[in-house]
Amino acid sequence: RVSHYKQSVKDEHAKHASKKSPYIVSIPMQARALMRRRVQIIRGGIAAQVIQLASFVLQAIIMGTVFLRLDDTTITFFSRGGVLFFALLFAALSTMAEIPALFAQRPIVHRQSRAAMYHPFVEGLALTLVDVPITFVTMIIFGVLIYFLVGLQATASQFFIFFLFSFINTITMKAWFRALAAPFKSPAPATAGAGL
User: Fold this and answer.
1) With contact defined as beta carbons under 8 Å apart, do 170 and 91 qualify?
2) What CA–CA distance (Å, rounded) separates 96 from 135?
3) What is the pLDDT of residues 130-154, one digit of tens each?
């Protein structure tokens, strides 16, 4: 009887999944399923994405019009540096808002891990892979607005260097805040730690 049960468990494993693993599907299959679920969650709560995009657009328009078409003189170096600093800082600090959302889905991740449905690291990987295109679109809109309203150097190479730094900075800070929130049991100390 026990041998029949063990054989049925082995038969249920996916072709590429390790037979010794408690997970019956392989890592790529888990990632695909979790990415699909993450996209469905985002579609279900599309208002949050629209609000985030709107806040980025609004901040870019505000900062762009405050420093509208800066002169190409040395007197505006400090203002240009301020705009670049704001663009990096705003994108980085806006990612801190993810901490409460991570704690909201933590019980689900733990339950699925205990049931050997999905590995927790695959959940994090899927979250990141789905966030990259959304962050890309958000940062390209934010970058185009603020860069060309202010009148920073109007060459493609300079713009894409600015975009590359702001995009990588945003993705890195998302990963940093996710890693910072991981060891905490509640959102309050994690947010306090992130504020340091």
Assistant:
1) yes
2) 14
3) 999 999 999 999 999 999 999 998 8
Torsion sign across C-alpha atoms 73, 91, 159, 171: positive
Rounded CA separation 38/195 (Å) = 27
Torsional class of 128: left (φ above 0), alpha (ψ -120 to 50), beta (otherwise):
alpha
Do residues 17 and 23 lie in contact, with contact meaning Cβ atoms separated by under 8 Å? yes
Query: Which contacts (CB < 8 Å, 24+ apart) does range 18-25 have?
Result: 22/116, 23/116, 23/117, 23/118, 23/119, 24/116
Per-residue pLDDT for 9 more than 80? no
- Whether pLDDT at 185 is above 80: yes
